[in-house]
Amino acid sequence: MPRRVLSERPALGSARIVWEGSSPRAGRQAMQVIILGSGSPMVAPDRAGPATLVRVGTTDLLFDCGRAVLMRGAAVGMTARDLAALFVTHMHSDHTTDYNDVITTRWITNVAPRPLLAHGPVGFERFTQATLAMLEHDIGYRMAHHADLQHRPQVTVREISEGPVWDADGVRIHAAPTDHSPVHPTIGYRIEAEGKVVAIAGDTVPCEGLTRLCQGADIYVQTVIRRPLVEKVPFQRLRDILDYHSDVVQAAQTARDGGVRTLVLNHMVPAPQPGSEPQWIAEAKAHFDGEVLLAADLLTVEA
After folding, report:
1. Is a pLDDT exceeding 70 seen at residue 7?
2. Which of 120, 170, 173, 266 would suit a FRET pair with 51, their CA atoms being 20 to 30 Å apart?
């Protein structure tokens, strides 16, 4: 089914997308995937850090929380105050840079205590406590200044490995382990709603868990590197990423083998240079007959 184009921006791959600066919510039940951040650890002026919003009706589910996540979220009506839940794939800094901002902003914009429900791999509870400890000065300052702010920020953490992790508001989410070694543990998510399936892989090479997540998915969002370009970089630290990220070809093969409908290439390394976008898509299309989209911030796709 064709996607509505709400503003004139280049469609990188197909017209089956929705570009929007303010995503309408009322009366909408279709599952939307909104790329809030398409960037990587390499800072870029037009790409926020890794973060993906899955929206079903009025339910907002956030996957990872890289730099500027709330700024990008504001463009589509997402707020920390009303976020249903956060799901983290792993604790690399680029995927969690603004976790503290999500916690703080939810805290100060709610009148009564409203814990943030945050899911992540084993170790995420300790990570959360360290984040709250880092915020201790700010918490004290704000509570001393605002007489009506008598509660501290609250986060309810659910550490998960695999299996069902969410079943509410007509949305079911399953997790499965992925492979981003030596980063361990890492997980990806499969979101099911309205008869549609979205797979959010995070950073991983092909593995059994990723295969399960992607099976029959309508939309599969995958971090990718462009191997021929990275191999030429004269800096070993950057070339090190070759062994723990899917390259474009591997992502396309995973999509093909899983019967995926739409592959979204995300968190691209290196960031595509203007005019090179068709090369990324063509490299994937050589191995996958479905739809291929190259992510940009605020790219919105309906499942």
Report:
1. no
2. 170
